[in-house]
Amino acid sequence: MTVPAETTPYPLTWLYAPGDRPRVVAGALASGADVVIVDLEDAVAPDRKDYARAATAELLSTPEHPVPVHVRVNALGTPPAQRDLAALAALPGLAALRLPKVTSADQVIHLAETTPPSAPGTTRLHALLESALGIERAHAIASAHPALRGISLGEADLRADLGVRGDAGLDWCRSRVVVAARAAGLPPPAQSIHPDIRDLEGLAASCAHGRAL
């Protein structure tokens, strides 16, 4: 895939937008965020997956975007994910693929070696660790392949897997991915999403706590 240059080496703000709502995606691109992530997974209902994929392919048919555009594909190994990769991987406007629920280095290696880019050496992958198994294998995943450019947590699913409620239950996991990323020579992980868009004080507190870790 052809990869637009990222605006900063360590983007500070990452904004998710559902792939089946093109107007919301357009607003995200104009919002001032450093990176926009078009979500084809959790934010899109099953009966909207095909539309979301088609709308995202249209968006990525051109490299002209104000900020890099990442796409979170559907769960690896599923038919929707296979269709996502086939439709989007080589489009010129795609800066990176975000891989949900990664649990092994082999998944990263497989994707890196079977998703041919449109230009050599330009594939960029980001792995989301969303389970206890993913956390236990964090360094192996982070160092799996040169195409992997970052790791981070998917905290909603991780909370469910671990059965924890408050942020304190995730502190060890957050620190674990920081250490794994550093040991693998990757950029510092971005904090996971803050789902309550009206709770700006909570967002600030979450960011400050994550940064302290």
Task: Looking at this protein, list some descriptive labels.
single chain, alpha/beta, 9 helices, 213 residues, disordered N terminus, TIM Barrel, 6-stranded parallel β-sheet, 6 strands, globular
Description:
The protein is an alpha/beta fold. The chain has a single domain, classed as TIM Barrel. It is built from 9 helices and 6 strands; from the N terminus they run βαβαβαβαβααβααα. It has a 6-stranded parallel beta sheet. α2 runs parallel beside α3. The radius of gyration is 16 Å and the shape is globular. The protein starts with 13 loop residues before the first strand and ends with a helix. The N terminus is likely disordered.
Can you lay out the helices and strands and say which pair or pack?
Blueprint: E1 14-18, H1 22-29, E2 35-39, H2 49-59, E3 69-72, H3 79-88, E4 96-99, H4 105-114, E5 125-129, H5 132-136, H6 138-142, E6 148-153, H7 155-162, H8 171-183, H9 200-212
Parallel strand pairs: 1-2, 2-3, 3-4, 4-5, 5-6
Helix pairs in contact: 2-3
Termini gap: 34 Å
Helix content: 25-40%
| Share in β-strands | 5-15%
Global shape:
globular
Q: Which CATH-level-2 architecture?
A: Alpha-Beta Barrel
How many helix segments? 9
So what's the CATH class?
Alpha Beta
Report the CATH topology name.
TIM Barrel
Strand line-up across the major sheet: 1-2-3-4-5-6
Instruction: Note the quaternary state here.
Output: single chain
Mean pLDDT, all residues: 90
Number of folding domains?
Answer: 1
- Quickly give the structural class: alpha/beta
Give the topology string: H per helix, E per strand: EHEHEHEHEHHEHHH
Supply Rg. 16 Å
Uncertain regions: pLDDT < 50 for 5+ in a row? 1-8
Give the number of DSSP strands: 6
